[in-house]
Design brief:
The chain is mainly α. The longest helix is centred in the first third of the chain and has 29 residues, at about 95-120. The protein starts with a helix and ends with a strand. It has helices spanning about 5-20, 30-35, 40-50, 55-60, 75-90, 95-120, 140-165, 175-185, 210-235, 250-275, 285-305, 315-330, 340-365, and strands spanning about 370-375, 380. A two-stranded antiparallel ribbon has the order 1-2. The chain has a domain at about 90-360. The structure holds iron/sulfur cluster (2 copies). One iron/sulfur cluster (SF4) binds near residues 17, 63, 64 and 72.
Length: about 375
């Protein structure tokens, strides 16, 4: 596995300038982690890059951006390393790199290709099922979507293991994972270091819009997932197969989730189009838009299917929706969707760092249990 050395070199150059400057100390969790280092290995830069959420606050505060000779653009330098690390750590790596280069084409081709397959497969018949199962049998759906659901889990699991090794993290502890999950769930870092939001789409003005759309997309996705899970339990455990009425739990969860997903993705695309592309990863814009578009299309096609599910258009709409869902699952490890998992890993590694730091601080306040520095500046346990 090989990351692009020019991207790492540029991020290293800029991180060293920031380390000397220290003006942005309170902006985000990147700077305390950056200031804790004297030199930056490839693993350190990968960790810093995945801690950064591209709020762009440091860019607008920086006195060393172009035309200054230092030409600082830390959001872009870290975004480039972050993007490259996802391609490099992906499993299989070829698919990760290919999606980064041709994300839009691959996403569109996958949706259309899978939709055509489902459209053709309906000719095989349903073996007498009702509703959607009259188009594609229940067993065929399970046989297709169960492996498609498991594949991203296995693939992302392998990528995270690679990440853990790359950044040379210690074995994961439960408390660090809980801290990371808490921060990821409320998206604390998207509030900005001062709580006023970030500068992503509004240049030097602060806004909470990006945090709000991330919350909408995350909750929309979780509601849709909950809808499918509840429907599965109702089918298998309670012997109540689909279709379900408007006021049933699967429908209420699915409709509210679909709406949140569509609105969140539409607004996310609008914010991305307003933002300054020169502060994001080079060449990643199309792939990012493709992924958000695909996710929004999953929600949209689900809502349209619900609205027109009783008409003659149902088989076509179902084929499109299933094609989008299948493309989404299979492409997840290579799209921006994977960033949530890498970010979670980066937050857990940062929680390790902070807990080590506080342990050392409490040891230094309690000399009887503290490590002492030897002549090389290394820490050695004081056993007296
Ligand atoms: S981004 Fe600019 S102002 Fe902020 S720490 Fe780096 S060099 Fe200093
Ligand atoms: S872009 Fe935002 S999150 Fe990234 S280093 Fe700068 S201030 Fe931190």
């Amino acid at each position: 596995m090989q990351m692009q050395t020019d991207l790492l070199q540029e991020a290293r150059r800029q991180a060293e300038i920031c380390n000397a400057c220290r003006y942005c100390e309170g902006y985000c969790s990147v700077f305390p982690a950056l200031h804790a280092e004297r030199a930056f290995s490839d693993g350190d830069l990968t960790q810093l890059a995945n801690l950064c959420h591209n709020c762009r606050g440091c860019y607008y505060a920086c006195q060393y951006t172009a035309p200054h000779e230092f030409d600082l653009n830390l959001p872009q330098a870290l975004a480039n390393v972050r993007q490259d690390s996802w391609g490099d750590l992906a499993f299989p790596q070829t698919a990760g790199r290919a999606f980064q280069k041709n994300g839009v084409m691959i996403a569109v081709a996958a949706v259309i290709g899978f939709a055509l397959l489902f459209w053709a497969a309906r000719a095989l018949g349903s073996l007498g099922g009702a509703g959607f199962y009259a188009v594609l049998s229940h067993n065929a759906m399970v046989a297709i979507f169960l492996p498609a659901f498991l594949f991203p889990l296995v693939s992302i699991g392998i990528s995270l293991r690679r990440y853990w090794r790359r950044v040379e993290a210690q074995p994961l502890k439960w408390m660090h994972l809980v801290t990371a999950l808490g921060q990821a769930a409320n998206m604390k870092n998207l509030r900005g270091g001062h709580g006023d939001g970030c500068n992503f789409e509004d240049e030097d003005r602060f806004s909470h819009a990006r945090r709000a759309v991330h919350q909408a997309v995350m909750h929309g996705f979780l509601l849709c997932f909950a809808s499918t899970s509840v429907a599965t339990v109702m089918d298998y455990a309670l012997d109540k197969p689909a279709p379900y009425g408007l006021f049933s739990l699967p429908k209420l969860l699915g409709l509210s989730g679909g709406l949140l997903l569509v609105l969140g993705c539409a607004e996310m695309i609008r914010l991305k189009l307003r933002s300054d592309r020169a502060l994001g990863a080079q060449g990643a814009f199309g792939g990012e838009i493709a992924f958000v578009g695909l996710l929004g299309f999953v929600g949209f096609s689900g809502l349209v299917l619900y609205a027109f599910g009783q008409t003659a258009a149902m088989p076509l709409l179902l084929a499109l929706h299933l094609g989008a869902v299948l493309a989404f699952f299979l492409l997840t490890p290579f799209t921006k969707m994977a960033h949530g998992f890498y970010r979670l890993a980066a937050l857990a590694v940062d929680a390790q760092r902070l807990s080590d730091l506080s342990q050392r601080a409490s040891m230094s306040m309690n000399p009887s249990a503290s490590p002492t520095a030897n002549s090389n500046g290394d820490l050695a346990r004081n056993n007296t």
